[in-house]
Amino acid sequence: MIDFRRGAPVAGSLDVVWHAGRPSAEHDPAPGIQVHAYSEHTVILRQNKSVHFEAPFLFLFFGNDRALLLDTGASADPARFPLRETVDRLVADWLERRPRPGYGLLVAHTHGHGDHIAADGQFADRPRTTVVGPGLDEVTAAFGLTDWPHRTGVLDLGGRILDLIPGPGHHRAAVVFHDRHTGLLMTGDSLYPGRLYIEDRAAYSATVDRLLDFCATRPVRHVLGCHIEMTTTPGEDYPRGTTYQPDEPPLELTVDHLRILRRALDETADRHGTHAHGEFVLVYRD
């Protein structure tokens, strides 16, 4: 059995250049999914922008009893986006070094927008696999998130514990995942270097406060959202639909960015529309 508590939060590697598409998407020789091992038990995947402009990041966490795949990307077609094949290979490689019978897979989501759930169907017939639906009732039932959104939950992958923090505001059933083993905080589309679309500003503001309270008592090594949409010029983003982004900043943010986000929300509390703030852009849609 792996002791996921010892030395936590353990260090990982973000020494990676994310593939950001090609000027001619149809001539991009890169695979549909880029795979990066953050640590020996944690994998970050990115969908190729030449396959879908959203190019979401996905996360795979291995526990002693089962793995968690967080989000399934923006494309359903396994020929162009072979997510099931990729995950099966990664699980098989991990189990080859750590054999154990009956190993399971849990497929869940940061939230239920189409660019995060499109390949759910690829896992529908996979043995020993549970796919959590993206609706609020499905999410709260699966993770025991009673009194939504005021109470956090816990997910146990077999000695590897993740905290689940309700995160509505961008999506009514959004959840933020904190992995105690690595200290990674997966914020979905609630915070990332890009356009932060706010559907419900009161709920979103409460989510930011909830995350700040959580981070005040937990070690967080990196804040990882699900997209990169900014350039390296502060406040300047790539237009929506861009399939080639040669001047991307890193994916990882920090807890300080949550504090910056809190101030940005306060400064724009009575405004509407779009407001650039360095590493991200607020987009009010209410």
Element layout with pairings:
Layout: E1 33-39, E2 42-47, E3 57-62, E4 66-70, H1 83-97, E5 104-108, H2 114-117, E6 129-131, H3 136-143, E7 153-156, E8 161-166, E9 175-179, E10 184-188, E11 195-198, H4 201-215, E12 222-225, H5 255-267, E13 274-277, E14 280-284
Parallel strand pairs: 4-5, 5-6, 10-12, 11-14
Antiparallel strand pairs: 1-2, 2-3, 3-4, 7-8, 8-9, 9-10, 13-14
The CATH class, by name, is Alpha Beta
DSSP E strands, number: 14
User: Could you state the order of secondary-structure elements as H and E?
Assistant: EEEEHEHEHEEEEEHEHEE
Please compute the radius of gyration using only Cα atoms. Answer: 18 Å
| CATH topology (fold) name | Metallo-beta-lactamase, Chain A
Q: Tell me, rounded to a whole number, the average pLDDT.
A: 97
**Which CATH architecture would you pick?**
4-Layer Sandwich
Strand content: 15-25%
Distance between the termini: 49 Å
Count of individual helical segments: 5
Largest sheet: 6 strands, mixed
- Count the domains: 1
- The spatial strand order of the largest sheet comes to 1-2-3-4-5-6
Q: Name the overall outline.
A: globular
